[in-house]
Amino acid sequence: MESDSIKDVTEAEGLAKLGVASVVEAAKHYKQRISQAPPLHNNQMPRRISDSAKLGACGGNFFGWVGSAWLSIALMMLVLAAAGETEELGLLIVFLAFFVVMGLIILSIAFKRGLRSIRIVRNGLLTWAVVTDVETKIERSTGGRTPNTIEYHVSFIYHNYERLFFAKANVSRHQPITDQATELLLFSQDDPEHVEFADLLPGGLRIDTTGRVHESGFHTLLGLVPFLMIPAGPIVGAILMGMN
Length: 244
Known about the structure:
By secondary structure, this protein is of the alpha+beta class. The protein has 2 domains: 96 residues, no CATH class; 89 residues. It contains 6 helices and 7 strands, in the order αααααβββββββα. The strands form 2 sheets. A 5-stranded antiparallel β-sheet has the order 3-2-1-4-5. It has a two-stranded antiparallel sheet with strand order 6-7. A hairpin with a 4-residue loop joins strand 2 and strand 3. The longest helix is centred in the middle third of the chain and has 35 residues. The model has no long low-confidence stretch (mean pLDDT 89).
C-alpha cells in the first residue's frame, strides 16, 4: 500500500498529465475514453488455471530467467570444483555455494511474482485502464562496459467500481499496453491498488473481457524453459569433468 503522501503526489501528477484540475474532471475524461470499450464480465471466480500455466507464470518472468541461469551456472561450477584437486577445495566450494544460494533467492522472488499474478488472475476483477503518459528512463552504462538499460514509467488511471485511481507502473516494454485507447486491467478485490495489465501477464496466462482465462501453449512452454536450464548446468559440468 502506498503512503498518503505518495498517493497525493501520484494523483497530482496524474491530473497534470491529463490537463485537468480535479478528480471529477479526470473521472469525466475516463468515462469518455472507455465509452466505446466492450463491456466487462466479472464472473466464474475463482478462475481455473492449469498447473503447467502456473509454473510457466513463475518461470516466465525476468527473475525466473535470471535466477535459473544463475543457479545453473553456479551448479556447473560447483560440480567442476568438487572434481578438482586443490588444497583450497573446501573454501572454493563454500564460495560457489554462496552463488547457489543467491540463485535460489532470485528464484524465490520469481515464484513470489508468479504467484501474485496467479492470484490476481484467479480472483481479480476486470476494469479498463487509460494510459496518460509514458516516460522513458535510460540508465547509462559505466565506461561502456555494460549496455544501457531502458525502463518505461507508465502513468494510467482506472476505476475499481467505487472510485478513480491514479497509478504508475515501471515496465521494460510499453507497446503491449499503449497500443489501444483503453487497456484491460486486473485489480485485487482486497487491495485495489494491486493491479496487473492483462497484456503483461507472465508466462502463458491470458484473460479476455468476458473473464475467461486462456493459456498460450507456446508461452507456457517458454516459461518452463528456465526450470529446464537448472539441471543442464551440473550435467554440462559432469560432461566437462569426464572430458578431462
